[in-house]
User: Fold this.
Amino acid sequence: MSALPSRDPVTAKAVLRVEGLRVELRDGSDVVSDIHFSVAAGEVVGLVGESGSGKTTIASALLAHARAGARIVGGSVWIDGTDLLALPAAELARWRGRRVSYVPQDPAMALSPVLRIGTQLHETLVVHEPALVRAARADRIAQTLRDVGLPSDDAFLRRFPHELSGGQQQRVLLALAFMLRPTLIVLDEPTTALDVTTQAKILETISALCRSHGVAAVYVSHDLAVVRHLADRVIVLYAGRIVEAASRDALFDAPAHPYSEGLLGAIPDVALRTSLRPIPGLAPAPQARPQGCAFAPRCRQRSTTCTERAPALSPSGDGQQVACWHPLTRRGAGRAVAAAVPTPVRDAVPALLEVDGIDAAYGPRQVLFGVSFSLQAGECLALVGESGSGKTTLARALAGLGDHAQGQVRYEGQDLPLNARERDAALRRQIQYVFQNPYRALNPRKTVGRIIGDAVHHFFDVDRAEGLRRAVLALQRVALPPETLALYPGDLSGGERQRVAIARALICEPRVLICDEVTSALDVSVQATVLELLGQLQREGLAILFVTHNLGVVRAVADRIVVLREGRIVEAGAADAVLDRPANLYTRTLVHDSPSLLRASRAPPQPLRAAS
Amino acid sequence: MSSASVRRATVGLGKALREWQVRLGLATTVVVLLFALVGPWLTPQDPQALLGGIYGAPQRDALLGYDYIGHDVVSRVLAGGASLVWMSLATAGIALVVGTALGLVAGYSRRVLDPVIVWWADVLLAFPNLILVLLVVSMLGREPWLIVLVASVAFIPGVVRLVRGLTVGLASREFVEAAEMLGFARWRILVGEILPNLLTPLLVHLGTMLSWAVGILSGLSYLGYGIAPPAADWGLMVNENSMGLQIQPWAVLVPVLLIALLALGTNLLAEGVGRLAARIEDR
Assistant:
């Protein structure tokens, strides 16, 4: 392992070299360990992993910082030949921002809401380059703002962060990070909070800046499609270890580690309907990692060696490194599964839910303008739109939380009030809603048994034993064991919580399930499990209204699509037809800007098959 | 599925007892409470009998001496805590129950009842506690139950404010909306969904109210508006014997110390539980 720098030709001019980095929690368990990698000037390295893999821990360790409760206990972070971890605090403060800078995940949280943009930019220069006179500072700021694609006039500098859009805020943070011309820039999921169109533009800017200024970048992300567009090399993390490090093309065309392959197979893609393969099981917590390879319990090809000894990161093929006893060798192994799955053809049946001219307004601001569509029994309709399109307002109105909405909705021919209190019990039971954020949708003070049980006893006149039996059955349908009944939501992971929320909806025996971005808070491998479950429910006859901004997910689950923009429907039709040949300009932009694993390797978007 | 990964995030008693503030507060409170509640049965003498000299010095059968008219101080200390303790508990308890009910309704209804309840709470809040109690007691007499009732009225606005604020936040949380969509009755949402999430802050507030109640009630007796002599009461003892502080300090110091310990103990307990809860919810 220590021989790594001399072996890899790239590291000869490496500006960042991480050696044997180890970060521990208070109880002595490691969040990350044995982290070795290097980044050359102008190179973009993607650091990829699911939640809990340690990617953010590594990102902050590159600035010699550890979050509360964690401590950097070993290794070194060499930047331009200086070990950041060995610097005294005062020296370190000078290095941060100047030699290594950081772009955080949520731009709205990172900018001070009470200071003007110009003040925040000037502040950075005053601290790091006190020698600059005011005019020189202003020049530098103007130039940097132009670099990141922002206006540089005084009016803009006098604005407050809340007066900017999310994309502009993120550009301001990019400006702050690039202004001092750092050697290395660490980007921690800088686009996850943004819409796809904005994301695509920001990614372009980042890419151009790194290339033109020769800045080395570490791009942390859970989104492999984004990394594919941006990175030269990719490092895949699992349970705090590097499991694979490879050039972009090697990783995406021929992943060597079963986990990398699994991740690729679990991602829904906007370009092609594929069958998703979830990775079974969950990533272990730092305290509960198994002996041997941490991935072994979830691995399809584990042997006894895997459960006994942990594999070291070793070379495999051209420049690729993998930590696996049985690395995959077949070229194209990862993409072999990406065979198109035909869209099921369905007969025309009468609509179950008919939405006719819904308007909604929050005070003077109207968010929905006469939206109409219908949902058939057993179909999955995707309601697609970016933030602010009104899609959540619409979904909530259909679910009975429509205080702000007006309009006519018919369910099986009868009028459906938009306020749940005015619906009768049968309607409330048959139309169920699953919330976006599983962390807020379950009462933290009730056990799963009570959360699900309360719903059963509310709608069905059954005794305790029958209620319990149905609760166990509902958990079984979402692949949770009966023991879950005794647990509190705080004891469960995000994916498990979302499945409990779905179980609470299912136990009511609904005919319509409204899902509001149900997978956006989940990791891709867990997302695949949830999507698979929804597909199965749909085949059993459930009608699903799937609200999302993620076109990859839409391609994987939807039969039909309704595209919403600023409260109006701009396009509607069969899912594959709309995604392959979008008629509306806005839809076309959305499809084009959605990151795709498949399209990146194949030339421009093209119709993949005839209309269904 | 390997999902039964049990990581309990709820405040357990065991976890609470590892906090030094909780331990110290709980120990102090329990000792003073036991002393006050069991004391009346352990008095060596009749606490209302005149047995010794005025401000008589401590001696073998009166370890803390005699008070301003010759009562045995040990017996009066033992007998004089019960009234303070039950009145403080009742005051804090009534304020907690009534205030929580009003706060829940105000925070959840948001339309008609909210402004009415909050307006009344603000009016009461603007009125100094002690003065309110003094006013009513001086008009209507110094019955213990009346004092408890009026003191609890003085505490209710604080509880209403706390509960209403938390309820407003919780009412827009998705799990409450989920219950609304399922069509649960309003009282059931208040009691079954929202109230359980208030228990920790309410527990903290109860502790704080207990120490306030101890302060107000002993202050009332000290001012002569509380328990009437010749009955024994810690606050009253301070009043009765303050003239003889230099001759016979025990008749004042011991009740003062016990009142202070009770207030301190409940305060520490509330503070400790609060910090613990904050730390657990942060994670």
